[in-house]
Structures are given as C-alpha cells and as structure tokens.
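Quick start: what a row looks like.
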Amino acid sequence: MIRIEYQTQRLSMRFFMLMLVLFFFQVAFGLLAAAQHIDPALLAGQLNFNVVRAEHTNLGILWVLSGFIGAILFVGPLLSKRELAAPGLIKFLFYALLAIVVWNVATQSLAQQGIAGWWQGQPMLHEGLEYLEAGRIVDVVILVGFAILCYVVLRTFPPVSEWNEIHWGLGIGVVALTLVWIFGMFFVERLDLQEYFRWYVVHYWVEGVWEVIHISLVGFLLVLMFKADVKSVGYAVFWGISLVWLSGLIGNAHHYFWIGTPEVWQFWGSLFSALEPLPLIFCFWHVYLDSHQDDKPVENMPAFAFLLGSVVLEHVGAGILGFTMTFALTNLWSHGTWVTLSHAHLALFGTFGMLGIAAAYYAVPLMRGKANFDQRVGRLAFWLVFTGVLGLCFAFAIGGTVQVFVYRTLALDWFGGDVAPAMQFAKVMVPVFGFVFAMGVCILVYDLMTVGLRDRDSAELPAAPVVPVAPTGWGRRLHGWETGLWLLGMWFFGGVITMGLLSFNLRTVAEGSMMLPYLMGGVGYTGLLLVTLGFVMRFLRSLEARGPVGAAQVPATVAAATA
C-alpha cells in the first residue's frame, strides 16, 4: 500500500475537506442567485440578491484559498524533503480560516441593513467593497493567517541558495499574498482612489499572486504525475512567472478605464492586458509536453483531468475571454454586464478552483492509503462540472450580448424591466446548466470525502489479463501539430468575439441593427466553447488509451474470442 512520505502532509487534509464543504455551499448560493434572476421577488426582504451574490463570490474566494493552502502544505515537504515547520501554527491557521468563513457569512446580511460597524473612521464589521466585503476586524485575522502561511512555507523550504524555480515561485507567491492584502485594509473616502487600491488587491491577487502560485503548483504536480524533469518544469515556471509579472503589473490598468483615473490608462491598460495571455499559452503548452514525454499510462486520471481543465479554462477564460474585453473599445460595452460573468466564471473557477480539486484528487487518496481507488466516479464528476461550467459561460455570454445591445445601445430602462424579457432565454439556461454543474459538484464532494472509506483497493482484487488495442480515432496519440490547431481554433473564435464587441462602436449598430454583434457573438461563443470541449475530450481520450485506466484495453479472453 502506498503511503505518504511525510506525516505533516496530513495537515493538508482538513483544508481539502473544508474546500469541499465551502464549494458545495457556494454552488447552492449560485443556484439561488440564478433563481432570483428569473423571479426577483424570491426571498426579497429576507435574503436579497445582493447578499446572495456576495455570499456566492466570497465563498468562492474562500474555498479556492483553502484548496491553495492544502496543495501548498501537501507539496511543501516533498519540495523541501523534510517535514513542515510549525505544525501547531498550521492547526491554528485552519481554525482562523474557519473563523473567517463564519464571520464572512454572518456579516453579509449587515449590508442589507446598512450596518458597517464604523469605529475610528473604519468599517469594522462589513466594508461593502465588491470582493472585499469583510470588515477591518476580519481583515486583520486574514493578514495574520497569510503571515502564518508565509512563515511556515519559508521555514520549511531549504536555504535560499538551494531553491529551484518552483521554490522561488511558491516563496514569492506566499510573500506577495501577504503584502498585497495590506492595500485592502484601509478606507479611503474618495471613491476613485478607493477603487484604485481595491483593484490592487483584486487584480494582483488573481492575475499576479494567485497566478504565480498556480503556475508553480501546476509545475510540481506535473513532476509528481508524470515524473517530469524538475529542471525542465522549473524553466517553464520561471518564464511563466516572468511573463505574468511583465504583463500583469501594468495590465492592471484595464481596471482603471471607468473609475475616474487619467485617460492615459486606456492605452497602457489595453496594450499590456493584451499581453497577459502569453504566460497562459506557455503553461498550456508545457502541460502537453510533460504529459506526452513517455506515453506511460496516467495513474490518476481524475487528478490529471482537473489539472488539464484548470490550464485549459485558464487559457480560455482568463486568456481568450479576458483578451476579448481587455481593450478600452470593447470593455466600454462589456464592463459590468453578463459578458464579464462568462470571463469571470471560467477564469476564477476554471483556473484556481480546478487546480485545488486536482490537488485534492492527487493527495486525498494517498493520505487515505488508496492509491488505486475507483476513478470512474471522479471522471464522471469532472465531465459534469466541466460541461456545466462551459454551458454556464455560454449562457452568460449570450445573455450579456443581448444585455449590451438592449441596455447600452438602445438605452432601454433596466429597472423598468425592458431588458429582462430580452434576456429571458439566457436566464433560463443559467439554472439548467447550473443544475448540471451542481450534480457534478455533489458527486465530486461525495467521491473525495468517502474515497478511502468505501473503496476496496484495486490491488486486492484479481486483475484480468489485458492486451492493448491499437488506439484509433480520438484515442490515437495527440501530436503537437494537432494541439496547435486546436489552440488556433480557440483563438480564431476569440477573434470573432472581439470583433463582435468592437462592432458595437459602428454607426449601424448604434442606430438599432443587432445583426452583426448577435451573429458574431453567437458564432464566436458557440465555436470557442465547443472547440474547448472537443479539445479536452480529445486530449483525455488519447491518454486513456495508453493503459489500464483507459477503455482501449480488453481482457485477453475477449481479445482471443474476437480474433
């Protein structure tokens, strides 16, 4: 039976379990928000939409952070070849995270009553800034928690002179995670200046700090899953982080377009934000190279499926859909509409959420001594979650395109209800695909929480002899040139989406002709999401055909009977 090498790695288990619980409740709030979009009177006065939405987004941030912490604590000893430092502080960090979750959930309803708990010029109970709703009291607890994580990681790592690129990535990531949070810990009366600093936290966390941690963790998980060369992966991590910071630091300016900052940011924000997909392409390509270096069977398909989903949706959601609305002339229309929801769900959940799930699928079976667990449940969960989130983003994108035209081009009254009927089809699609997604989440949570409690290890079962079947069709080997064509197809449809958003600047559209933006949006979003789904199916099918975890093997008796 395979066991983990360092006992302190088990401390990551509690963070993975918390991640699953928070993920479940976040999805529940998301479904409630979708229902309230269809019926705005639902729970009005008891649990208003703004509170439900805040709970949904905040729980999303908290469970992603919990997954990140679990992944870092699991790989830390493997990177350092020794036990985690200060295990007592790690346990305290878990309870601090629990306190933050309870506080955050409990105080969201204060916004509905206009209560912020002002004292000494600071909102102590509830701040009210989007994504940073927590008050000053919990802000301090969050800072202490990040400082503990930073201390544990740096104390566990070997001396700096012995660090490789993955050490540097995670080390820089946890330090920056702590320092950047400070920009969100003070109140500024001027709204434009407050928004300026708010986006320091939101943007640099997601597109700077989290991205650095993400690239580093993806790299090391590839080392663990495929025995990839650490130096080769480290090379990819180095250039990925360099490109993230080269583009992301000034690329933050795409958040400055409409908050009262100087017009100069519209040019620089558009230029450097357009460069932000570069590190995502680099990461995407390196996953292909590492997974195809020796054509060995994939031992843990659910873990790799979610890892692949993380990198692909990062590329599509953060890269391509981020690119389509990163220019001032397209962001002018998409900003604050459902178009941004499409980008946000694929970028945040797709990139960071799926990585945490991938790490859990790799770590939890090992910590429970079930390396050869039944992977069928996890693979089903992946396809439901992956298909559901693509469908959600399609609904958001189509609804947002209608919203831009009806609301911003025709200038019909949003609050008078003119826009709602036009978006009704998209509003119905959201709970439909949300239900598919939720089914996958329920299966996923059940699978990971019970993986070591219900499964018999497959090593205990008699194995039927198998003979390989030559892979054909979608099971054949995925070559680099074909991967490049899939990638090119994604960017082609991304270009169509971009042109569709730019078409809102045309006089004919301003005069009431919807044909061009609707046609380009329908073709672009449909094509992009179908190509994404097809590529992931093709990629995973080619890996499944390698060995016993795939369908491209049959028992020897069956093979003889059909010969």
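That is the whole record. Confidence is low (pLDDT under 50) at residues 457-469, 549-563. Residues 489 and 531 are 7 Å apart (CA to CA).
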